[in-house]
Here is the input.
Amino acid sequence: MGERKARRLPKALLAAGIVAILGLTACTSGGDEGADKSAGSVDSPSGQAAPKPPAKITLNPASGTADVSPTAPINVAVQDGTIESLTLTNPENKQVVGQLSPDKTTWTVGEPLGYSKTYTWTGTAKGVDGKSAPISGSFTTVTPARTVDASLNVGDGKTYGVGMPIAVTFDRDVTDKAGVQKAMTVTTSVPVEGAWAWLDDRTAHWRPKEYWPPNTQVSLTAKLYGTALGDGKYGAEDRTANFTIGRSQIVQANTQTHRIQVLQDGNQIADYPASFGLESDPGRVTNSGTHLVMSKHRTYKMTNPKYDYFDVEVPYAVRISNNGEFIHGYADSMWAQGKQNVSHGCVNLSPKNAGIYFDIAQVGDPVEITGSTQKLGPEDGDYYDWALSWDEWLAKTAA
Here is the structure.
């Protein structure tokens, strides 16, 4: 048998086969999920990675700000970066105390600034882009028309009676009473309902709605420095006090029975005959109402030119009002004590009984007097706080 000759495919059929093979190859490549997609970019149309942002620096207050309170919140904040270095200096180039946050994005002033001074920022921040940017700027604190000081009637570590108000007395009139009141805070170791009242343009008192609970710890914080008092005036200094309310001791006195009783923690511990002010003369009447023990004097010289007596020395004088009313010893009126009222407004006791009471009296103790024709009021000066009802007291608050 002879050798078979190979059959040749027509050229057109051969070309079609090659195209089919190539077509299968392209289809397979296009469906491969693991194929390289680097020909395009999801970050930007150009295929380039988005640029990293520079540090964005915010000054609070803004550079150039004037009339800034020296106790206002003052800081520098950085977005898209961190603070590398930063100082705030006063005109004498003294650095202000401040604190950098743990993440280094905020620097906050940590001390009160001065009045009438320009402060300057100097430092750098590093952005996410890796570049450093300068931190610079300045601001100026307010120049008061006048600085106003204040005094307190309570002191650190002292103990007071259950009627004691807190008094803040300013040496100039306060116009912005609401703003000042917000700067004064009273905190207590047990819940106590109370409120501020402005008794005049210079005096704010805080008293509880009812007498203080015995043994209460009280803290007053009056953040007056940097606080606007109105009319361009600002507080000169902060004032604080931490004190204790002691045992409950209340004197109940009746001008008609001519006696006073002393109640301690609700129990009567004393009952003394007394002589009160002569009621036939309005100028000598002992006022009814809740007085407070204000001060104690082992001896005190009494003077009243209207009634022609001068420097009459009495023992164991306990002041209960600024109008001249005291509880004190007076031997010359012992014949009337427990029987009739003959004094010039004071509560007269025998020297012996006055001494016993003197030893247990405490500033802030209430002295509740009833039975007379005259009432304790604003004209009698400090302290007439408890002569006001709670609604009357709240009507005097500023906020």
